[in-house]
Amino acid sequence: MPFPNADSLWADVLAVRQQQPLVHNITNFVVMNYNANALLALGAAPVMAHAREEVRDMAGIAQALVLNIGTLSPEWIEAMVMALQTARGRGIPVVLDPVGAGATPYRNRAVAELLAAGSPTVLRGNASEILSVAGVEAATRGVDSAAASDDAVQTARTLAARLGAVVCVSGATDHILAPDGRHVRLSNGHVWMTRVTGVGCSATALIGAFCAVQPDAFHATIAAMAYLGVVGEVAAAQVQAQGRGVGQLQIALLDGLQLLDAETFHARLRLQTDD
Amino acid sequence: MPFPNADSLWADVLAVRQQQPLVHNITNFVVMNYNANALLALGAAPVMAHAREEVRDMAGIAQALVLNIGTLSPEWIEAMVMALQTARGRGIPVVLDPVGAGATPYRNRAVAELLAAGSPTVLRGNASEILSVAGVEAATRGVDSAAASDDAVQTARTLAARLGAVVCVSGATDHILAPDGRHVRLSNGHVWMTRVTGVGCSATALIGAFCAVQPDAFHATIAAMAYLGVVGEVAAAQVQAQGRGVGQLQIALLDGLQLLDAETFHARLRLQTDD
Amino acid sequence: MPFPNADSLWADVLAVRQQQPLVHNITNFVVMNYNANALLALGAAPVMAHAREEVRDMAGIAQALVLNIGTLSPEWIEAMVMALQTARGRGIPVVLDPVGAGATPYRNRAVAELLAAGSPTVLRGNASEILSVAGVEAATRGVDSAAASDDAVQTARTLAARLGAVVCVSGATDHILAPDGRHVRLSNGHVWMTRVTGVGCSATALIGAFCAVQPDAFHATIAAMAYLGVVGEVAAAQVQAQGRGVGQLQIALLDGLQLLDAETFHARLRLQTDD
Fold first, then answer.
1. Which amino acids of B are annotated as binding site, given as ranges?
2. pTM for the full model?
3. Roughly what angle, to the nearest 10 degrees, separates helices A6-19 and A199-213?
4. CATH number where B159 lies
């Protein structure tokens, strides 16, 4: 497996732009539009479909499946289980975003039901969500984390091994942990990214696109998080220099997902390998 | 209760920014993303959740509940009733936006069902919607008002007393009426704000955030409407000076919700007390 | 019927701006917000409503009905059929966007069910979708076309005659075909428009607004597609000149829908009549 560095991560970016993978999303109402635009800006081909009558067919033609429980209802969980089974049967990557896990018992049951149907390839959440999925009593506050990402690392490592999945704990520092114990930290990004709804969910969607072109899900997850992190900090700097705010950041993020160049990516990447 | 003036209203803005109240929204599909971004830009913490399986739990941890009937279906009304009951049981504020009331019998029945389950703390709508909620035969046109806000004031005053709720009739002039007869007019804003979908619904969501930090719902409603009105007229002026249009206004509004300063707010506020 | 030229098409634009037709949309979750904003920017009055309990009433007060199958479920198809029947009973125009037709059997069945309930006034899709609706085995890829619009012209011509509907095949060149054999090509637009989600769906929504003010649906469809095409290429040129990307394009498109002037429209229109 390639050792993740700026060159190998950038190669994944180019692969997404060139291969334009079809990413099937079953995601929440709040972020559907923004996630579709994020995938399009990146160069991927999003499709959103949730009907139980067609999710098997859609997952059957996609190169990756992204599941996000941000706005649930029973029919949607059922559709997610069906799509997850199809995706696993075909061997395409599945990325799960347990939005708000820990906030309500219903979300916890939904996560349990999904995990019972099959492990995802990658699980991405904030610290509270990852702790909750691991069964650790965690403080949460709606869909925001009440814990720092650093606090969840040991739990995430164990969870990765148990699920056989890459686990990404996002926060001021992103931690990405592989089932085999590999661990990297990313320190890119900007705090304003938490004030645009759907940026975390977009990270999950982008991981789906990267996993579609990079068979090492650990590498793909790092590439997606690193790319979004660099895009975000460059965009935030531009927006602040113009005296603009988080509205403009939302748009500048999409511009950056399309236009970021290799030179900026290399100059800005803050990747630390931890083993 | 504080007499509403620029200083006391600005204090509410600072309180929202500092306390970051968790606002539970059960709202329509069209504006979910924009309302979440408006609340985040303001400094509040939005959560959107509509499943009957979890709305009681979510309303149980929120500091305010916002109900918006813009895109209804029976399950959503049921969920709204459940969340409303939980919120009232806990004594947290409930803000109701009767989008399109009067446009179809179904919307009228939905409003009646919600009001039967419990009065909101604040009711915000355009003139047609408020007239319709009051049972006055009103001309409506889809979700747009066919009446001027000034025409609905007397009806709104009676409605406020009957419901024991603050009633806000928004329009070129916003009228805010308390159950005890207090009444203020706000003349901020810009007509282009009606050409960005979800700005009215965002006003309702912002009222929720302000009510979470200001126990006098009359004062909180004035603060939210005044803040959005000033943000909107400043944003519209900037956008027009750049030769841009209502697309850019949508973004500039979010920037302004984050960045408006006390000086501009004081200089621009057009508040008239009516008693 | 007016021969479509820049003057007659621009007259339709002015008619929409002046009459502000109420357009009832039953559309997908991904694009609801963007389509509502596109209609508002153009000067029309959008309403989104999907509940079976109210679609007949909403279609009963609208000037046009737009149906879009982008994110389906059984209740939505049922609601679309009800609204379609009401619209046809009242003689208002119906525009159908068969998003992703051909991608899954469920979508094909949905289209068949809608067409069985009544022909639309206008059918707009990309080449794959139109070929699929016509029953031609077509390559599709999620919701993106795998065929060029030129390849679908003959099939679209036959389909227009069979349905008694205007058929619009959009792509690098847009083909618009009337049931009586009239055919025009439009060569405006910019490839980046395909990287903003909902632009195609917005085209469909705009056609609804134009059909509400122009009884010749062929003329109205050309006007809508020409207007959006010119707006899009002007916006793309501006965005690229600023070093911005598809995020900014999304916003610039809305600005342009509001602000495009007659002079630019006349100078840029690339319309070719084919008979």
1. 48, 124, 170, 198
2. 0.96
3. 90
4. 3.40.1190.20
